[in-house]
Design brief:
Elements lengths: L2 E8 L4 H4 L6 H22 L4 E5 H6 L1 H10 L1 E6 L11 H19 L5 E2 L9 H6 L4 E2 L6 E2 L3 E2 L8 E3 L2 E3 L14 H6 L2 H10 L3 E7 L13 H4 L4 H13 L4 E2 L2 H4 L4
Parallel strand pairs: 1-2, 1-10, 1-11, 2-3, 4-5, 5-9
Antiparallel strand pairs: 6-7, 8-9
Length: 258
């Protein structure tokens, strides 16, 4: 039986700002919150567990929603604020931001957080993660996308580095074709099935909660906004139904971490 790890990044929807577009903070929060509710409905309907990597800023805005997620699913740390750019920070500043984010979310859910995914899948010091009590990281996208990721020769399977377990986002063998959020939405479903079938042990899929809200009227690249909202929800439902005999679980359960 293959294990399928559905993971959702939950943050302020600040992506338009990266492209020079204006969006109010209230709208950023509202879009992501509404997306979380769509995701929870889908997961509950199919009785499956998932991992949510949440920003501390979003968690402080919607503590009850975060506690609701935590009742049935795994909460991991995404960041203090989604705009955090660790490449422009010194070691101590990055440490303080990540540590503070973890502490805020732990107070809200009254549970220890052991998983981390960096905003925009940035590289982060494993020394920092180890120091604040993180056990696993799921920020590695082992593929090559010009201007974004240069990890073509990185491992596809779970490995350890500096006492941190690394669980990569899934890609195909050899050609390293990605299956992350943009690819899942923009390519036909058979493409995602093909890559899923080529991964024998586990598949780790990553989405954002905002993708489950229709943003096609926004002034953004077609690649970014295409097939959002109900179209993505329906497509993921078809994927889940197709693999209903496989095991859907959280990352910590897959790694057998309690």
């Amino acid at each position: 039986m293959k294990t399928i790890l559905l993971t959702f990044d939950v943050e302020e929807f600040d992506l338009p700002i990266e492209f020079g577009k204006d969006i109010s903070e209230d709208e950023q929060f509202e879009i992501s919150k509404n997306g979380v509710e769509e995701v929870l409905e889908l997961l509950n309907k199919n009785n499956i567990k998932a991992t949510f990597f949440v920003s501390a800023k979003f968690s402080e805005k919607y503590p009850e929603l975060i506690r609701e997620i935590s009742e049935d699913h795994e909460i991991g740390l995404h960041c203090l604020e989604h705009k955090d750019d660790y490449s422009k920070m010194g070691h101590d500043e990055a440490y303080e931001k990540i540590k503070t984010g973890k502490e805020i979310i732990e107070r809200i859910i009254d549970k220890k957080i052991i998983g981390f995914r960096s905003p925009r899948l940035q590289q982060i010091s494993y020394e920092i993660l180890n120091k604040i009590g993180i056990i696993y990281d799921s920020s590695l996208n082992p593929t090559y996308i010009p201007g974004r990721y240069n990890n073509f020769f990185s491992p596809r399977k779970v490995f350890s580095k500096n006492d941190i377990k690394i669980i990569p986002i899934s890609v195909s063998p050899i050609l390293r074709l990605p299956i992350f959020w943009l690819a899942f939405r923009n390519f036909p479903l058979f493409y995602s099935k093909y890559i899923t079938n080529r991964n024998k042990d586990f598949v780790c899929l990553v989405f954002h909660s905002w993708e489950f809200i229709n943003i096609e009227n926004m002034d953004l690249s077609r690649l970014i906004k295409r097939n959002t909202g109900k179209k993505l929800k329906k497509k993921l439902q078809k994927y889940i139904h197709y693999y209903k005999k496989e095991k859907f679980t959280t990352i910590s359960s897959y790694l057998m971490i309690s």
